[in-house]
Amino acid sequence: MNWSTRLTELLQIKYPIIQGGLAYLGYAELAAAVSNAGGLGQITAMSLPSADHLRMQIHRARELTDRPFGVNFAFSAHQARFEEWVQVVIEEQVSAVTITGGNPSALLHWLRPTGITPLVLVSSRRQAQKAEQLGAAAVMVVGSEGGGHIGRDEVGTMVLVPSIADAVEIPVIAAGGIGDGRGWMAAHALGAEGIVMGTRFIATRECVHASASYQEALVNSTESDTAVIKRSIGLPGRVLRSEFVERLLETERREPTYEALQSYISGAVNRRWIYDGVKEEGFGWAGQVTGLIRDIPTVSELIGRIVSEAEAIRGKWG
Ligand SMILES: Cc1cc2nc3c(=O)[nH]c(=O)nc-3n(C[C@H](O)[C@H](O)[C@H](O)COP(=O)(O)O)c2cc1C
Fold it and tell me: CB atoms < 10 A from the CB of 62, how many?
């Protein structure tokens, strides 16, 4: 079957399936596995301590795949030393850069003459139109079902994707709540030309940094087992529920300030569960799609299965 869309043409990939940026989990092994399976894998720059580490990760991914892959930047995390990092992706000529968390204009400006495809993550119609004006090649539209940071308006994928598909000319890529062939085909029906998956890729064998406890929780949780934290400080993000998260939410209700929440929401606290497996002392980002995750396959098995499911749907509906 032919899976080409404007996104596959842009990125030179077989399937329009992108592995989203994954803080502390999106390293070369996972990125290369996704690219080898026909999608676009990504190294997450914010997980790395320096621009040199980013270069090493890019080299490592190149050892593992000869297919295109991308680098994800969370703008707010890198603002101070941004140019150095951008220089690395330009020198290394990665295929794509995805941008989230802040005003993408400077980065889009730097990338314009380089031939690197810039994709911007948005969570509202206004942001999507702005990204298009600034020169994004496509927008990744994240609905409120998604894992990790979501839009302040908390609009779901089902409404946000068609709304933005009507508002921009560039390709729209749907994110948030997608974990199988049904979600992928639904996204296309909504006007998307590809998908981003985050949570689903964490429960794979090549997500080697994820603790067994976190991966097992993704398999065992239902769609009701997530919660949104940091809403009160204007940075909503979806996590797996736990006793730790209940304490965090209770603190947030009592004292909704960054200072009060700091000791619950830092990267170190995040890693306490996702790396060390200590669920009682940390949190893990996850989307509602956790309710559809039932195993920990290899990335190639996962993408093969998703493609088969999508083929069956196309066979049924034409
Ligand atoms: C553990 C985790 C970490 C994430 N870290 C980032 C990040 O660093 N940068 C980013 O752009 N998006 C990040 N996201 C969002 C994903 O890239 C993606 O947009 C989202 O997971 C899509 O929703 P889904 O989880 O329902 O697939 C993260 C998501 C998760 C679950």
Answer: 14
Cα–Cα distance for residue pair 230/151, rounded to 1 Å: 12
- Token digits of residue 235: 């940075």
According to the model, what pLDDT value does residue 318 have?
Answer: 75
Q: Which two tokens stand for residue 18?
A: 């992108």
What does the pLDDT average to over 196-219? 98
How far lies 37's CA from each of 140, 152, 189, 299, in Å?
A: 20, 33, 24, 7
Q: Which atom of ligand 1 is nearest to the CA of 46?
A: 8
Closest C-alpha among 112, 131, 223, 202 to residue 169: 131
Q: What is the pLDDT of residue 242?
A: 97
Task: State the DSSP H helix or E strand holding residue 303, giving kind and residue range, or none if neither.
Answer: helix 299-317
Mean predicted confidence (pLDDT) in 62-66 = 98
pTM of structure? 0.97
Alpha carbon distance 73, 71 (integer Å): 7
Written as six digits, the tokens of 240 are: 């797996």
For residue 278, with 0-12 CB atoms within 10 Å meaning exposed, 13-18 middle and 19 or more buried, which class applies?
middle
CA 134 to chain centre: 21
| Ligand 1 centre distance from Cα of residue 273 (Å) | 17
- Kindly state the greatest CA–CA separation across the chain: 55
* Distance between CA atoms of residues 281 and 275, nearest Å: 12
Residue in 285, 288, 293, 302 to alter for ligand 1 test, most ligand atoms within 8 A of Cβ: 285
List Cβ neighbours of 183 (8 Å cut-off, separation of 6 or more): 177, 195, 289, 292
How many angstroms separate the alpha carbon of residue 318 from the centre of ligand 1?
A: 32
**Tokens linked to 101:** 């968390």
